């Protein structure tokens, strides 16, 4: 990796280059394998710039879209919402805001709490 | 005078000759026998006196030696008793130290063994707990897989209430 994802994101948001040229530049630097991380960094930085939060909704499997929409409605239009499938959660949802605050309503957490409660 | 001797039947001439013979014999005996004999006797006496004195000296020295020997024996005995007492005291002290050391070591070994046993027990319990957790988790996963929607819905609703 030649440059960290945050540097690419900063460069992209400041210069706002043509997307094709940007992708070619990433590929030329040998960082194309990490394009997902770079896109995530761009999303995060642009969300922060407009005063929003990056919200990550992790679920054990694909759940009813109505439930996901209910969760989405809890956040503002400025926020960027990502959804992920994480089978390790067993069931339920884990909500992370800006990678710092977390609301964990997964069965995995409940089990962990159970093991560590004496 | 000669008439008197003749009247007494003594021959004066023969008497003189006998007298001269006696003097000569006395002189010869004095020089040849008496004096050497007296010298030998004197030497003998001297030797005996020396021997007696030497014997007395020897006896005195023997007595002194006996006294010194007695003193030395007593001194040696007292020293030996002191050495034995010291050795006994040192031996007792050393044996006490050895016993104390052995007891300390034994205590340490017992403590170590107890700690090791406790640690092993703890490890075993942790292992059993982990296995139990894995089994419970697997059982829960299987249960959840039977009707995952209901559980997901319930948990998501809880999350919605908290958001």
Can you tell me about this structure?
The complex is a heterodimer of chains A (118) and B (163). In chain A, helix 1 crosses helix 3. Chain A has two domains: 1-49; 53-118, no CATH class. The radius of gyration of chain A is 17 Å and the shape is elongated. Chain A has helices at residues 5-15, 19-28, 35-49, 65-73, 107-116; strands at 54-59, 80-85, 92-97, 101-106. Chain A has 118 residues and is an alpha+beta fold. Chain B has 163 residues and is mainly alpha-helical. Chain B has one domain (2-162). The chains are: A alpha+beta (118), B mainly alpha (163). Chain A binds chain B through residues 59-61, 63-64, 67, 70-71, 74, 90-93, 95, 103, 105-107, 111, 115, and chain B through 129, 133, 136-137, 140-141, 144, 148-149, 151-153, 155-156, 158-160, 162-163.
Topology:
The complex is a heterodimer of chains A (118) and B (163).
Chain A: H1 5-15, H2 19-28, H3 35-49, E1 54-59, H4 65-73, E2 80-85, E3 92-97, E4 101-106, H5 107-116
Helix pairs in contact in A: 1-3
Chain B: H1 2-8, H2 12-146, H3 148-162
Average pLDDT taken over every residue of chain A: 87
Tell me the span between the first and last alpha carbons of chain B: 196 Å
N-to-C SSE string of chain B, H for helix and E for strand: HHH
- The structural class of chain B is mainly alpha
| Sheet with most strands of chain B | none
* Percent in strands of chain B: under 5%
Structural class of chain A: alpha+beta
Measured between the Cα atoms of the first and last residue of chain A, the distance is 46 Å
Q: Which radius of gyration of chain B do the C-alpha atoms yield? A: 65 Å
């Amino acid at each position: 990796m030649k440059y960290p994802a945050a540097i690419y994101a900063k460069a992209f948001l400041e210069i706002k280059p043509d997307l094709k040229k940007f992708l070619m530049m990433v590929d030329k630097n040998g960082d194309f394998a990490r394009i997902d991380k770079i896109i995530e960094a761009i999303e995060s930085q642009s969300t922060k710039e407009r005063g929003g939060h990056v919200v990550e909704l992790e679920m054990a499997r694909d759940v009813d879209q109505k439930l996901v929409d209910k969760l989405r409605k809890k956040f503002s239009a400025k926020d960027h919402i990502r959804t992920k499938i994480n089978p390790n959660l067993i069931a339920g949802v884990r909500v992370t805001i800006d990678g710092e605050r977390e609301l964990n309503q997964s069965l995995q957490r409940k089990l962990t709490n159970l093991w560590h409660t004496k | 005078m000669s008439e008197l001797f003749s009247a007494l039947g003594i021959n004066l001439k023969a008497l003189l000759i006998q007298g001269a013979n006696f003097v000569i014999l006395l002189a010869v005996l004095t020089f040849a026998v008496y004096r050497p004999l007296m010298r030998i006797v004197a030497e003998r006496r001297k030797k005996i006196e020396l021997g007696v004195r030497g014997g007395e000296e020897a006896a005195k020295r023997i007595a002194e030696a006996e006294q010194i020997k007695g003193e030395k024996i007593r001194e040696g005995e007292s020293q030996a008793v002191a050495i034995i007492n010291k050795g006994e005291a040192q031996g007792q002290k050393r044996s006490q130290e050895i016993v104390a050391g052995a007891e300390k070591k034994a205590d340490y070994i017992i403590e170590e063994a107890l700690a090791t046993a406790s640690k092993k027990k703890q490890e075993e319990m942790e292992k059993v707990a982990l296995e139990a957790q894995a089994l419970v988790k697997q059982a829960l996963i299987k249960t959840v897989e039977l009707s995952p929607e209901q559980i997901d819905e319930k948990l998501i609703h809880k999350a919605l209430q908290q958001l």
